[in-house]
Amino acid sequence: MRIVTSALQHTAPRCKSMWWVQQALVWLVLGAAFTAALNFFLMSRGPPLATILSHLQSPPSSSSLEHHSLHQQVYLRGEVYALRNSEYLNWNQKNRTGITNAIHALYDHLPGVKVRHRTPSPHLHSLIHTLRQDITTRGVSSDPWDLAKKWANPRSLVPGSAHGLGDVLGALATAPIISSDVGHGGTQLKIFLLLKGGQRAVFKPIRYLREEIIEGEIYDGADRHNGEVAAFHLSRLLALPTVPLAVGRWVSLRKHILPVASKELATTFFKMEGGEVCFYGVCYYCNKNESVCDNGATLEGVVTMWLPPHLPLTQLHHPWARTYIRTKLAPWEEQPGYCEEVRQHVPYSWDKSPRLLDLMDAAVFDYLIQNGDRHHYSVIAGKLESAVILLDNGKSFGDAEVDHLDILAPILQCCRLRQTTYERLLLLTGGGLSLAMQELLNLDPLAPVLTRAHLLALDRRLSHILAALSSCRERLGGWHQVLF
Ligand SMILES: Nc1ncnc2c1ncn2[C@@H]1O[C@H](COP(=O)(O)OP(=O)(O)OP(=O)(O)O)[C@@H](O)[C@H]1O
Ligand SMILES: [Mn+2]
């Protein structure tokens, strides 16, 4: 470095403008060397690619950099990414050979995807208009529970054009609560409700403020009630109609829940010194230290509609489940060819069942909301053609600035997606997804349901999905090998 500088200084006095050019060159060289050294320094520490933060829309805010510099994980690769090292031990990160190359390929395709999909589709507004109108139009049905029951079948819970949806969501948000009970099974705090007119539903209370960041593993923390609301609206936008209807609702524990509570639920209620009513329910993680209190008259939460009796659920192990053991990798994390292995088993053959394509749709959906906790998936019992029922979406929207790319593993490894899902994704590019979500979520009683950062994260993640598919097209030799 010193040699370059002195050589330039030696020739400098000959002409003033030359001198300035040379000075600029010196600074350029110094700057480039510094950037290279910084890159090398940053890349040589921390784990390899696994979980990636990218700021596709705008430069990172100083607060986001502060947050991530705590983990010393900022990497430069044309953009700023941060890798979260808390998800797995370093040893595991090194051995996640099942997805590492596919993630690198995704990033190779990302710049092209961003250039191709810069502006929203001209057709987006009519989609938003239709979906909003379904919700804002009221008085369509005098029996909303019956309407929702008639809509539901093993492949769809809500039709694409759901005239009367506003009545059903309105009833979920306001119908008097006839009885309340503890949930059956599960790890999360929830209350079973019977609403006037005989409709069953489940209530999950607020556990976090909108802007709170959930640290740690992707499946850490309690369910996010707003995540359930957002997931329902996202499912409509993606034309993946298997998320049970969900709407935000305020309840008073004192006035609406306790007076109609079962004995088992009522015994978990107690009063704080200041008079606040609290409860902790019955579930795997439920205990008095994790109580939720109703300060005054209002406790916000999400009400999710229970599936009708003609659609009983059964749970199956998800082939791409995590191990939930920090020192143990799942087979999909180690084997790039894992999809071929999955396809050997009956329900996952491309030709014999829609199941694997449904799991690809689920991966798109889960990646967008950042749900990495679908260890089991639900289907309608006894129906081979049943869609994957996307219920339990509360482990979502944990950190707007972190993207757990491994949720895309099914797509990265199988390289296949429904043509219709792909086309819907294209309709939502160029910032359209965040715009549409904001428009839909604004109609919920709990608006704003998601922070701006979480809305923008949806657009960024959508580009990742398209980049993954673009790399698949290259790998397999054309879209006809990827889209079905
Ligand atoms: N809307 C619904 N309609 C019908 N059944 C439901 C509905 N929501 C949940 N269930 C049933 O209740 C079970 C537990 O619900 P859920 O998965 O939301 O609870 P959880 O505490 O988050 O469970 P986990 O800890 O396993 O994630 C589900 O597996 C499903 O069988
Ligand atoms: Mn859950």
UniProtKB/TrEMBL annotation:
Main localization (coarse): Golgi
Domain FAM20 C-terminal: 269-475
Any one Gene Ontology molecular-function term assigned to this protein's record: phosphotransferase activity, alcohol group as acceptor
Annotated TM spans: 24-43
Keywords: ATP-binding, Disulfide bond, Glycoprotein, Golgi apparatus, Manganese, Membrane, Metal-binding, Nucleotide-binding, Transmembrane, Transmembrane helix
Active site: D373
Residues engaged in binding ATP: Q188, K204, T304, M305, W306, L307, D392
Cofactor(s) listed in the protein's UniProt record: Mn(2+)
One annotated Gene Ontology cellular component of this protein: Golgi apparatus
Keyword field contains RNA-binding: no
Keyword NADP: no
Cellular localization per UniProt: Golgi apparatus
Amino acids binding Mn(2+): D223, D392
PANTHER family for this protein: DENTIN MATRIX PROTEIN 4 PROTEIN FAM20 (PTHR12450), GLYCOSAMINOGLYCAN XYLOSYLKINASE (PTHR12450:SF14)
Entry's family note: Belongs to the FAM20 family.
Name recorded for this polypeptide: FAM20 C-terminal domain-containing protein
Species per Swiss-Prot/TrEMBL record: Scylla paramamosain (Mud crab)
